[in-house]
Amino acid sequence: MACLSAGAALAAPGASSKPVPAVAAEAAVQQFTLKNGMQLIVQPDRRAPTAVHMVWVRVGGMDELSGTSGVAHALEHMMFKGSKSVKPGDFSRRVAALGGQENAFTWRDYTGFYQQIPSSRLEDVMKLESDRFANNQWPDSEFKKEIEVIKEERRMRTEDQPRAVLMEQLMAATFMASPYQRPVVGWMNDLDAMTPDDVRDFHRRWYVPANAAVVVVGDVNPAQVRAWAEKYYGSIPARAVPLRKPQIEPQQTGVRRIEVKRPAEQAFVAMAYRVPTLNHVEKLQPDDKDALALLVLSAVLDGYDGARLERALVQGEGQAGGRVADSAGSSANIMGRGPSLFMLTGVPAKGRTAAEVEAALRAQVQKIAEEGVQTEELERVKTQWMASNVYERDSVMGQAQNLGNYWIQDMPLDAEDKLLAELKKINSDDVKAVAAKYFGDDQLTVGTLVPQPLPAGSKAQRPMSGKADMSGSMH
Q1: Helix/strand/coil (H, E, C) string of the chain?
Q2: Which end of the chain, N or C, is more open, meaning fewer C-beta atoms within 10 Å of its C-beta?
Q3: What is the distance between the alpha carbons of residues 70 and 193, in angstroms, rounded to a whole number?
Q4: How many CB atoms lie within 10 A of CB 22?
Q5: What is the pLDDT of residues 106-116, one digit of tens each?
Q6: Which SUPFAM superfamilies match (predicted)?
Q7: pLDDT tens-digit map of 266-324
């Protein structure tokens, strides 16, 4: 199985970005509400005769009930197994016959399905996708085969990867009430106990028009797309979206620590700090401004080649005793329907310990809390954000992903522009303030991988970065 990182649309700047011409869209993005409450978002882009068609459903791992973890992801798989008019496996074959590519992804906050096809075949995939959205149907035998595929995916992506096991257990320790504590792929015991009707019930409950959006980007006419959407999606009967009850995470009142012992060559440390979530892009509240400042802080630490963590921990610049880590990373996961985390991670260099890496990571944040950041650092990360944004808009898939991500967060169509404008306003004092405010022990959960001897005759581990794997699960 492949994996898709499907996190917040506004990502940290890349290592190297060269400006390219901006998208010359004929018309601005448009949003429509179909007669059954489903949303349609259309962005014309005439530069090539291609289109991306996506369906985003505002349901994911966080909407599962206890004992059914992994059911959102299992349903994503089963959506490829047929409908009343399409036999198991025929959906993918039909898209391929149209000259297209397709896949799907599941995360805590959402599930998504997409096809990239010649724009002349858009109506065909809209007909196909709307059919399986409304009429997903398959025999029990298909589920019994597919659940074994999902279990193997869990073994390969989590149980056979020591750092993935650590991250899974770190999330379980970090969150007490939030459903973010459960893995998107599901606990193995829940997968063992899952039934075909668990999956069917989840589909019946959550795959309703008012809980979904169709996103189309490419060489298309919005009026024609709207007509097709009304024909194929708008005819799906309207049903109420289930009531979501709040699952507020209680205040943390002390540092939490876990250790995971696994056969591995190197230790690994991951530090999860509770931070505010970005909820608004207009009339920003104090927490929104802090969330953006934390995003900038993460970029200053680890947003480009030679950023602070690499210079200090990996290269050993200014460090007594030299380099501390083989790799180190930072991420600010500030968008989502649940609580947000700021992650610091590192892999100890030979002869150094996880405790030394943890201390060095803390020291880098503390240094910013005391001194702030340099103007040139801020300008560099902001410039790279602008360039990376241009790159995203140069791709029809990138545009569709951003529009879908922001819809999931209930943000406006121009959320990206508004956030970029707000990021430009973040200054050294803002970054200094959040570095001092959010990195105390009462907001921290630390996970440490404690290496155990590798089994005799086993192959050495493939080197991995010090970054946390927060990717979603993809069909």
Answers
A1: CCCCCCCCCCCCCCCCCCCCCCCCCCCCCEEEECCCCCEEEEEECCCCCEEEEEEEECCCHHHCCCCCCCHHHHHHHHCCCCECCCCCCHHHHHHHHCCCEEEEEECCCCEEEEEEEEHHHHHHHHHHHHHHHHHECCCHHHHHHHHHHHHHHHHHHHHCCHHHHHHHHHHHHHCCCCHHHCCCCCCHHHHHHCCHHHHHHHHHHHCCHHHEEEEEEECCCHHHHHHHHHHHCCCCCCCCCCCCCCCCCCCCCCCEEEEEEEECCCCEEEEEEEECCCCCCCCCCHHHHHHHHHHHHHHHHHCCCCCHHHHHHHCCCCCCCCCCEEEEEEEEECCCCCCEEEEEEEEECCCCCHHHHHHHHHHHHHHHHHHCCCHHHHHHHHHHHHHHHHHHHCCHHHHHHHHHHHHHCCCCCCHHHHHHHHHHHCCHHHHHHHHHHCCCHHHEEEEEEEEECCCCCCCCCCCCCCCCCCCCEEC
A2: N
A3: 11
A4: 10
A5: 999 999 999 99
A6: LuxS/MPP-like metallohydrolase
A7: 999 999 999 999 999 999 999 999 999 999 999 999 999 999 999 999 999 877 778 99
Give the whole-angstrom CA distance, residue 162 versus residue 320: 30
Average pLDDT, the chain: 91
Residues 6+ apart with CB under 8 A from 224: none
How many whole angstroms separate alpha carbon 326 and alpha carbon 5?
Answer: 23
Token digits for 433?
């303030």
Tens-digit pLDDT profile for residues 183-241: 999 999 999 999 999 999 999 999 999 999 999 999 999 999 999 999 999 999 999 99
